[in-house]
Structures are given as structure tokens and as C-alpha cells.
Amino acid sequence: MDFTFTEEQQAAAEAAKGVFAPVAPDAVPSPSRTSGAVAEDFDRALWARLADADLLSLLLAGESGGAGLDAVALCLVLRESAEVLARVPLLEHSAAAAAVQAYGTKELAADLLPRAGRGETVLTVAAHGRTGHDPAELAVTARRDGDTWVLDGVQTAVAWAYGADAILVPAHTGAGGAGSTGGTDGTESPGAPGDRCVLALVPREHEGAVLAEQISTTGERLGELRLENARVPAHHVIEKDGAWEWLRELLTTGTCALALGLGSRVLRMTADYTGKREQFGHPIATFQAVAVQAADRYIDLSAMEATLWQAAWRISSGAPGALPAAADVAVAKIWAAEGVRRVVQTAQHLHGGFGADTDYPLHRYHAWAKHLELALGPAAAHEEALGDLLAAHPPN
Fold first, then answer.
1. Where is the Acyl-CoA dehydrogenase/oxidase C-terminal domain (predicted)?
2. What is residue 192's predicted lDDT score, i.e. its pLDDT?
């Protein structure tokens, strides 16, 4: 395989660098200095600049006004966004639009995608389930009722929920398929034979849909989405098999790209600081213990990058292999979740007391790194999932 980026992918990354160059990570108040969210809304001015640069339609086809690029190009742009902690729903919006394009009805795609590509309609995804630890597709039930689908359940920590116009919600149909009420006790039977997953596009302000405010470790405003007898038109529901699995893998791989961008900027900050900070008449970067720790973190970032591009390439190409793309995504998650934590912890340690100063941007990078680590989940769980995949797909 060839991991050389195409001219189009490189052009997207260069355009992103230009858009994100003026963004100052320390311009937003620190979450430790406010009792609520750091801001009511995401950065709309930056969002407009991304739209003007055609970076909100990277994955969309030409008929929808897009560039027709792939997950690799999106990850290149996301890496640039994380370096400046860009406060925009770029990942969630792009992934939701791509899922509608790949799996949605023609009616929904024709109506939604051109507006999404221009940034006029903002999308996000409910991807964390009821508690953040259970599968998102099991947190909401969906049943067909004539020309509508009826949704009930709760999704937690929906990113940028208050700023989005619509939320793409995974839901399961119950053991009997569409219209089933589940078991004999009237409850659903998640994961039972016949149960399947659908994706419903729910407007933020919709009858039967209520948001409750949550605050992330970054100080950003999240939303708990509560659905009670919420009716969605049938053409706003994606029923094709594999849609949620594909969307989930794209979201995860994009999160790994965010972790890589954040970690890269933090390591550069650390190199700059340790090269200038002197003790005993010498820069501390020349001390063996400091150099070894920095080298270890460079190895982490190199592994994060290699596994990220492998996962993004598999999602983009659909290339056959001994293991499904989920295996490469699991490996990328393991390195990203562990690596981004180690990078920021080492940075805090090598900065000393200066790293804990909330007036210094490293504080915000640490908070965002913790949020990404929690979003990716524990490495042990991904290792277990990878083991299951290896057991199910033994090498030839």
C-alpha cells in the first residue's frame, strides 16, 4: 500500500492550515474558571471560513457541491483543526453528511447535502449511548408506524448538540424488526435475532426531543438527548445494513486524527519550552532524562500516525483483507487513547509549575486530550475487541 497523499488531499490540508492559522487556543476561557460552558455556541466565524474554503463538503460528491474526497483527506484537515483546538463540529458534521450520502434515501440526500456542504445546515451525531459506556445503537428504540418512525430513549454527551440543526441518532428496532415491541414483558431485546440498527435524522427542535445541558472536560457544551414518542418521517431514517457501523468507524478514526493533531502541537510546545528553560546553566532539553521522555512521546506520535492512516485508508478504499476495517480502527484507537494521554502528561511534567498555569494554553490542551481519551474509551476494551476479531478471522 502507498501512504503518499494525493495532490487533492495535500491541497485540503494546505487549505485547512490557512483557515486555522489565525485561531488562538488560549482565546477561549479555561473551563476551570467558569461554572458553566466556556461559550454558548461553537465558533460560527470559523465555521463560515471553513465553508468558504469548501472544507465542509470534502466527502460529498460533485452533484452535492463537494470535492469527492475520502476519509484520509478529512483526517488531514481534522489534524490541523486539533492543533489549534478549533471549536467547530467539523468531524461530526462531515461524518453525518457522508453517511447520508452513502446510505440515505435519494430524497434526503438531495434535500440535505447541498445545504450541509455550504454550512447552512449543521449536523452532529449521537454516538455515546445512554451512559457513554454502552453501545450507542442500543440506547434508543425505533419502530415503524406508517410513514413515520417513532423513537424513544436517551443519548448522552451529544457533541455540539445545542448548535446543530439536526442530530443523526442510531437506534435499534427490537427483536422482531421494524414495528416490534420486543419481548413478552413489553421491553425491547437489544442484540436479539431480528434486531437491526437504523439512523434517524432528528431536528434539534422537534416534538418529543428534549436536550439537557452537559459540560465536557473541555468546558464545551454537550447535550443529553431525550426522545419520547418522537416521530420522524420515514425518508429521514437510514435503514441500510452497515450504515451505523461505517459511520461509527469514521467518527472513531476522525477522533484519532484529532488526538494526533493535539499531541503533535503539545510535543512541539514542550520542545520549545525545554529548549529555552535553563537549569544549572544549560537548557533542560539537553538533560538525558528529559530527552528520553521526549523521545518516548515522539514514538507514541509516530505509532498514532501510522495506525491512523492505516485505518483511514481501509475505510476509504474498502480494501479486502484478512481482517475487517474494524481491526485497523481498533489498533488506531488503542494508540490514540493511550498516546494522547502520555503526551500531555509528559508535557505537564516537563513544563513543571508553568504547565499548570491556566493562563498558559497547555492547560486547555490537557483538558481536550482528556476529553478525546474518554471519547475513545479504554485501550483494554479495544484490545479485547481486537482479540475477538482475530479469533473470528484466523490468519490463513
1. 254-383
2. 56
Identify the burial level of 89 via C-beta atoms within 10 angstroms of its C-beta, where 0-12 means exposed, 13-18 middle and 19 or more buried: buried
Rg (CA), the chain: 21
Q: Dump the DSSP string for 266-317.
A: HHHHHHHHHHH-EETTEEGGGSHHHHHHHHHHHHHHHHHHHHHHHHHHHHHH
In the three-class reduction of DSSP (H, G, I as helix; E, B as strand; rest coil), residue 328 is classed as helix
Q: Average model confidence (pLDDT) for the chain?
A: 90
From 1.20.950.20, 3.40.50.1000, 3.30.420.250, 1.20.140.10, which CATH number describes the 243-392 domain? 1.20.140.10
Residue 188: predicted pLDDT: 38
Q: Which pLDDT does position 388 carry in this prediction?
A: 85
Digit-coded pLDDT (tens) for 47-65: 999 999 999 999 999 999 9
Average pLDDT over residues 249-275: 96
* Fold of the CATH domain 125-238: Butyryl-CoA Dehydrogenase, subunit A; domain 2 (2.40.110)
d(Cα 197, Cα 200) in Å, to the nearest integer?
10
Percent of the chain with pLDDT over 90: 74
Question: How many whole angstroms separate alpha carbon 100 and alpha carbon 96?
Answer: 6
Q: How far apart are CA 92 and CA 123, in angstroms?
A: 7
List Cβ neighbours of 93 (8 Å cut-off, separation of 6 or more): 56, 116, 122, 123, 124, 164
In whole angstroms, what is the distance from residue 163 CA to residue 37 CA? Answer: 13
CB-CB contact of 237 with 142 (8 Å): yes
Which of the listed CATH numbers 1.10.540.10, 3.50.50.60, 3.90.1170.50, 3.30.230.10 matches domain 7-121? 1.10.540.10
Position 264, amino acid:
S
User: What pLDDT does residue 370 have?
Assistant: 95
Q: Is 69 strand, coil or helix?
A: coil
How far is it, in rounded angstroms, from Cα 127 to Cα 139? 10
Instruction: Specify the 3-state DSSP secondary structure of 39.
Output: coil
| Beta-bridge mates of residue 125 | 168
Q: Is the dihedral of CA 344, 350, 356, 360 positive or negative?
A: negative
pLDDT band at 134 (very low <50, low <70, confident <90, very high): confident
Q: What are phi and psi of 153, to 5 degrees?
A: 145, -170
